[in-house]
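Worked example 3 (structure in, sequence out).
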């Protein structure tokens, strides 16, 4: 059972430290997106990378449309991994929806996690005006899903440069587009609905694990208003505005994200009794 879970999620272990640090990708991506960041922690931490079922080199045969129709299926996968590896007091670094998946996992089993590093998180992508601005009108999301159904390649080609930003480095958007296209369209469609129609605002006050929110500039997926909302409603959270632009700072600005995570973890270690 344990080995099958590690194969299912293509779990990769490295590093020389005792403290586990788990890196979770965002929608449409795999662990390769952390390749510029994760090695910087191998000297002092036990680094753990994984793929969501249906992405990367995961076991596609393990994909269950019902299990993964909501984020809960992905939350259970994370908890399966930490239980299999017997992790306690782990540092969870999650990008985008991966941040929310880790946050939900920490509510279920808080003893497994010491700190959450949330990169571009959002508890709800849809606007709920006048009280909440998530960045997306329902009509716009419906149009994106229609494009996804009509032409998955066209959807990926349109979306990748829009959310990657950094137009002076077109190779970054190209990599993201290729990552999207490497996912089965039916699986990507279901994951997209689970992601963009989720509403986890009521879960935020339930979190007991302290967190760092890393907010990017000009992030179309998680605007600055969302980062501020997360900070206001997430107990024990710290909000840090990054210089990085776009939604993928671990790819576009890895040096900054490495520096901020290390600074945060060093500070937390100093504050421990």
């Amino acid at each position: 059972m344990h080995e099958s879970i590690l194969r299912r999620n293509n779990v990769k272990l490295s590093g020389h430290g005792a403290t586990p640090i788990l890196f979770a990708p965002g929608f449409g991506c795999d662990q390769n997106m952390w390749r510029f960041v994760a090695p910087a922690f191998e000297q002092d931490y036990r680094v753990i990378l994984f793929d969501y079922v249906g992405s990367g080199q995961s076991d596609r045969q393990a994909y269950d449309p019902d299990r993964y129709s909501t984020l809960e299926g992905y939350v259970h996968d994370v908890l399966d991994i930490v239980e299999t590896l017997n992790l306690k007091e782990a540092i969870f670094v999650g990008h985008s929806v991966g941040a929310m998946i880790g946050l939900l996992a920490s509510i279920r089993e808080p003893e497994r996690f010491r700190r959450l590093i949330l990169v571009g998180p959002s508890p709800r992508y849809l606007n709920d005006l006048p009280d909440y601005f998530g960045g997306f009108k329902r009509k716009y999301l419906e149009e994106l899903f229609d494009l996804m159904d009509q032409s998955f390649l066209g959807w990926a080609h349109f979306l990748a440069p829009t959310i990657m930003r950094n137009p002076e480095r077109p190779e970054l958007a190209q990599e993201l587009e290729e990552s999207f296209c490497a996912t089965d369209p039916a699986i990507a469609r279901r994951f997209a609905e689970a992601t963009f129609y989720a509403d986890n605002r009521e879960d935020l006050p339930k979190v007991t694990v302290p967190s760092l929110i890393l907010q990017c500039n000009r992030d179309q997926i998680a605007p600055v208003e969302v980062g501020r909302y997360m900070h206001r409603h997430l107990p024990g959270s710290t909000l840090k505005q990054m210089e990085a632009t776009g939604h993928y700072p671990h790819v576009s600005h890895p040096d900054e994200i490495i520096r901020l995570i290390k600074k945060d973890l060093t500070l937390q270690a100093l504050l421990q009794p």
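Notes: The chain has one domain: 2-124+199-271. The mean pLDDT is 94.
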